[in-house]
Amino acid sequence: MGNLLQRLITATVLILAIAWVLFGAPLWVFALVTVVFIGLGLNEFFALVEHKGIHLERWIGLAVGLIIPLSIYINFEPTKGWELFFMVAAFLTLFLLQISRQDSSHAIVGVSTALFGILYVSWCFSFLIKLRFVEGPNLPPGPWLVALLLLVTKGGDVGAYVVGSLWGRHALAARISPSKTWEGAAGGLLFSVAAALALKPVFSGVPWLSLLVLGLLLGVIGQVGDLSESVIKRDCQVKDSGRLLPGMGGILDVLDSLLFTAPICYFFVRKFLVGA
User: pLDDT (tens digit, 9 = 90+) per residue, 96-151?
Assistant: First the structure.
């Protein structure tokens, strides 16, 4: 019960803070909070990797990981996909450092892991900023698009936790995460769809079918994201990515399901809803 109370208190504080950031604060505050979350999540990822015994240049990874969302926010994009340039720059810098070191054993593992962290945490979560800037004749303002992503994805997390805790009997992936069940997965998917459909009054210009498909898509992808982080933690032999959030673990434990749904939501909205 103590852990559940901590989780509820932390979740309440996060929900209120995020609601203010989305609908009450200036745009630069939203960008700043996104960058901070990326920095904290990326730092936790690098700490997990180092706990496993892999050496990497953490400061380069963090620098590039923070530059990517900042470049998106200030619209620094001479060409499409400009943020990928920073990954190439990081790739070259990491190899230059490996060349200058006396011991270059495990160089491939260190460089590859650093680049994976940048792509996994920074690039994927930066799509929240891209989503915030999306405009369309039948779409509400950008903050509501981000709210849709958060409500559908995290609603699925809540549904999976509640239904799995009450009725979970059959393990979903016992080797990776023993507490996750098929019943919880089904509950999470239902909650995601319900959250998407509940936003129909706000997304009045978007067809019901599009919201249903988006709810299903984000519901499934969100659970894949959750399991993916569980694979990483299992490999690094840790339970949580950190202890920053009481009852929830680390920042990466909160972001995990969003890391895959953010780009998927952005591409879906751009492809199917902007001109809906």
Answer: 776 766 666 677 888 889 889 999 999 999 999 999 999 999 899 999 999 999 99
Q: What are the structure tokens assigned to 188, written together?
A: 């999470």
> 0.90 cut: is pTM over it?
yes
Please tell me what DSSP assigns to residue 134.
-
Model confidence band, residue 80 (pLDDT cutoffs 50, 70, 90): low
- Spell out the residues 6+ positions from residue 250 whose beta carbon is closer than 8 angstroms to its own: 40, 41, 44, 240, 241, 242, 243, 244
The C-alpha atoms of residue 48 and residue 235 are separated, in whole angstroms, by 9
Contact between 230 and 252 under an 8 Å Cβ cutoff? The reply is no
Q: How many CA atoms lie within 13 A of 72 on its CB side?
A: 28
165 burial via Cβ count (<10 Å: 0-12, 13-18, 19+): middle
Phi first, then psi: what are they for 180, rounded to 5°? -85, 135
Closest CA relative to residue 46, chosen from 99, 108, 101, 122? 122
Give the count of domains, the chain. 1
247 φ/ψ angles, rounded to the nearest 5 degrees: 85, -15
Q: How far apart are CA 152 and CA 190, in angstroms?
A: 10
Q: What is the pLDDT of residues 188-208, one digit of tens each?
A: 999 999 999 999 999 999 999
| Structural domain containing residue 77 | 2-273
